[in-house]
Amino acid sequence: MARIVSTLAFAALAAAAPLDARTSKHTSLIKQPDGPTEYQISLGPRPYYIVQNMTEGPLKQKLESCANGPFSVTGWSIGHRGGATLQIPEASAQNQEAGARMGSGVLECDVAFTNDLQLVCRHSLCDLHTTTDILLRPELAAKCTQPFRPANATSPASALCCTSDITLSEYNSLCSKMDGSNSSARTPEAYQRGTPAWRTDLYDTCATPLSLDGFIDLVDSFPGYRNFTPELKTPPSQVPMPFKGVYTQAQYARDMVNAFIRKGIAPERVWAQSFLPADVFLWISEFPAFGNHAVYLDEEGDTPETLVTAAARLPSLKAQGVNIIAPPINYLLTYGDATNSTIVPSPYATAAKAAGLDIIAWLFERSGPLTTVDARQDYYYSTFSQAVSHDGQLYEVLDIMANEIGIVGMFSDWSATTTYFANCFGLQGPYGENYN
Ligand SMILES: *[C@@H]1O[C@H](CO)[C@@H](O)[C@H](O)[C@H]1NC(C)=O
Ligand SMILES: *[C@@H]1O[C@H](CO)[C@@H](O)[C@H](O)[C@H]1NC(C)=O
Ligand SMILES: *[C@@H]1O[C@H](CO)[C@@H](O)[C@H](O)[C@H]1NC(C)=O
Ligand SMILES: *[C@@H]1O[C@H](CO)[C@@H](O)[C@H](O)[C@H]1NC(C)=O
């Protein structure tokens, strides 16, 4: 589905993209704005801050050469929970708007279900007590699986509020807020706080929650060609499946895909994800046009021992029809020498490529300043944290994943950072037609 672009705009795009965009059938390829009144991609200061902090060398020179764009939407830049989660309440309409503006070509909705079995965008079925103001709504707070308990001398403050505790219309009445809580809180009001200092409460002003249907309509309305990546959640033990004795994980998996079918969204634009192999296998067998590029999220390798097992399992996933694997960054990178000063692709990354799997990685821009990831034992840097010490290395890390491993997409909490890099290297992301 080629997009029509003006000659002038095309020349600019071709200059930014060494890939032959003209012959590409990539559906994420976005036409440049035709004039100053058209929607423009806007990246803000952060990519420039990162480039400035890089040590001198060819990578810095290359990234500096792209400073003036042009920047267009790219499917390589995947908006995690909307793509602006670093600063804007996750999964909200405002977050999706910002991720889209920062050039994300694929936007994410984690799919949870409500008490009346409607699908909504929420990272966990049971995180409403930290991602919304539900505890400040007495009539809704009373419906929580575990209502608020204040901190006392022996126990921290706690609560557990699930999307399955309330109806869709109740869910829609909530404010989305920055994810966080205060375990010392003695009141629901005090419990609302807890945003890490390197995020911000600046936009924590009652963001709009989204249903899955609302997400699809919103993303489809953004200028430029955008794809969707819905993630089916695995309900926690407090929400045993089948829910109410009847609603099975399999039906939930079907309902998620059917929401896109009902809206007439082409399967090639939908990157269905799950941590549960059974969900992915269901899509492969029942919805092959979606299943052939469904994304299996791998979290089976969190220790050095299990990472070896997880890598060994990859060929069998491929043999069962999985084409895309999505591990966290720390599975893909490791130390390159005994002094822990260099970073190289891990044996897991090599095994995934050897198995013929495409790789989408998560999660960029989640971890705050790189100066402190080693001291904080940040998860995403855990396998190479001693080799990173300053923010300029964000692009060194991305370069190894993009240009040495060849990942086909990167989830990010701040889409501008990934969009800048992808535009500079002509990375357009995967396209669904290629998996047919
Ligand atoms: C990058 O930032 C660190 C502080 O985080 C600083 O020590 C270092 O000099 C900076 N490097 C460059 C090239 O600006
Ligand atoms: C402290 O809180 C815990 C958990 O909410 C509760 O079980 C316990 O009874 C409380 N202790 C006192 C002294 O109130
Ligand atoms: C957390 O709550 C405690 C008790 O109300 C309070 O002393 C503390 O300042 C709060 N921390 C934040 C970050 O709001
Ligand atoms: C390198 O990192 C590994 C794993 O974190 C650690 O066990 C080892 O002591 C480090 N080596 C040096 C020389 O710092």
Automatic annotation (TrEMBL):
SUPFAM superfamilies: PLC-like phosphodiesterases (SSF51695). InterPro entries: PLC-like_Pdiesterase_TIM-brl. Its EC number is 3.1.4.46. Residues 1-16 form the signal peptide. One of its GO terms (biological process) is glycerol metabolic process. Gene3D superfamilies: Phosphatidylinositol (PI) phosphodiesterase (3.20.20.190). It catalyses: a sn-glycero-3-phosphodiester + H2O = an alcohol + sn-glycerol 3-phosphate + H(+). It comes from the Eukaryota. GO terms for molecular function: glycerophosphodiester phosphodiesterase activity. Keywords: Glycerol metabolism, Hydrolase, Signal. Belongs to the glycerophosphoryl diester phosphodiesterase family. This is glycerophosphodiester phosphodiesterase. The lineage of its organism: Eukaryota, Fungi, Dikarya, Ascomycota, Pezizomycotina.
